[in-house]
Amino acid sequence: MLFDAFDGKLMLVLHRPFRGARGKLYEMKDAGDHLEVVRERTDLDAQ
After folding, report:
1. I need a surface site. Which of 25, 36, 37, 43 has the fewest CB within 10 A?
2. Which of 14, 17, 8 is closest to 41 using CA atoms?
3. In the chain, where do the E strands start and end?
4. Are 13 and 27 spatial neighbours (Cβ–Cβ below 8 Å)?
């Protein structure tokens, strides 16, 4: 799922459909005709 974060950054969350799994968050960049992954946002992982 793509969404705009509260700070305006484009983000992608990949949900994993199995028990005890957590999603992965990626900061994205709209490059016009395609999207680019800027970086994985492990700093936002819940502990």
Report:
1. 43
2. 14
3. 2-4, 10-14, 24-30, 35-40
4. no
Sheet containing 10-14, strands listed edge to edge, beginning at the edge strand earlier in sequence: 2-4, 10-14, 24-30, 35-40
Query: Is 47 a residue whose pLDDT tops 70?
Result: no
Q: Is the pLDDT of residue 38 over 90?
A: yes
Binned at pLDDT 50, 70 and 90, residue 46 comes out as low
Would you say 23 and 16 are in contact if contact means Cβ atoms under 8 Å apart? yes
Question: What tokens appear for 33 in the block?
Answer: 């005709």
Q: What are the boundaries of each domain within the chain?
A: 2-44
